[in-house]
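Worked example

This section walks through a single chain of length 179. The input is the sequence exactly as stored; nothing has been trimmed or padded.
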Amino acid sequence: MIKKIKITAIVIFNILALAYLTSPIPTIKDLPNSIKSDLPGDTVQIPDTTAFFTNMTRTEVINFYKASYTGPFRILLNHPPEKSRTIWHQTTRSYYLEEFVLPFKQSLYINGFEWENDVFTKPAQRIKNKLLYQGKEYKAKITLRTFPTNVLARIFVFWLSQVTVLVLFHSYLKFFKRK
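Given that input, the structure is written out below as tokens.
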């Protein structure tokens, strides 16, 4: 009886996981009240990258993407700004770097550079970092990058993880039953 319940629970869990893994990924919306950048490195040179010049604050930007990038298991991670150089390129300027993760599906990185708050430049010298684009001054440049996966890879990695956890759990139980 208990074995049937365990098997039923595993089957139901896998059906729900399959529904999650095959559900569509949220589309990344353009940042409102912002100008989309066409500068080199902000478009096709780096795959799945988009950038915007804006006067929105960090909180406004993160809240916008939090509302539009939804999922039942969404995780928000706050990374040190230096990590932006590994995600984009060595010359990427950053004030903050946040990541939305949909486990086993996709990550969305949000890099924000606010020239007035640049922690890597002395306050007296920050004016040289002023963001000018198409003749207009902006407070921030927001750069987005997604790391999507295909459905078959998601399913394979999920089930491989599940098998690994089950084998480890079974080995753990076997080890402690010996004693």
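What to look for: The longest helix spans residues 151-178.
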